[in-house]
Specification:
Structural class: mainly alpha
Strand content: under 5%
Largest sheet: 2 strands, antiparallel
Strand order of the largest sheet: 1-2
Number of domains: 4
Number of helices: 11
Length: 272
Amino acid sequence: MLGEVKEVLNIYCQASDQQINMKKSSIHFAKGCSQSLKGEIKNILKVHTKALKEKYLGMPSDVGSAINDAFKFLKDRVQGWMEQCLSAGGKEVLIKSVAQAIPTFSMSCFKLPRGLCQHLDGLLRKFWWGSRDGKRKTCWVAWEDMTKPKYFGGLGFRDMEMFNLALLAKQAWQLLHDENSLSARVLKPVYFPDTSFLDVVIGQSPSRIWRSIMEGREVLKGGLIRRIGTGESTNIWSMDWLPTSGLRRPVPCTRPNPPQWVSELIDQTTAS
């Protein structure tokens, strides 16, 4: 195992034509790692600094069970400019271009708690309607209406929770659509080596990122239908395959021995 780690580092250096500076590197161990194994790994890698920075590339380095604390910085960043006085048009541009863009990177990787999303929505709502003498002004229009597209009578603001799920669904689509992508090649051997991405279960101890991708997959499955070729692998009653806006599969048949596969419904004499 330790030899494989060292080999991976060598492969990375050769492929990227970069040399890792071990003196500037730090290492972080899981809680269950023994002291002897820690010392052996540090000696092999020649990394003796045990440290974990709070954030790396703008993302929290360690997202555990206290996910609200890990993403507290989003609240602070959004709230930092809330006291500025702008016109309605200026507020709209600032909310869409800055405030609702700040959490995009984090939301693409993690499912944020509903309470945090609602708190961010509350900050934006308070900023939009403003305050007088330290008291918030009356909100004359519901936030649900303001998040509708402009052609539906809204202002086009994003609902943070829905936007979070949309970004995770995009990650799930990438795993489903491109099995040769880097993320697919990393996640497939670990979480679904012997099954398809749509059929995999979440597992016993998934990482926070994998759990978030599973949330996006459930959103994705709500709009997916199977593309029919020969129909031999599409079950009529248990899979979505009808291109309709309602139920995407037929109502279960009650007669005995009904056909099970779409291929049985295709007239081979007229099929092209």
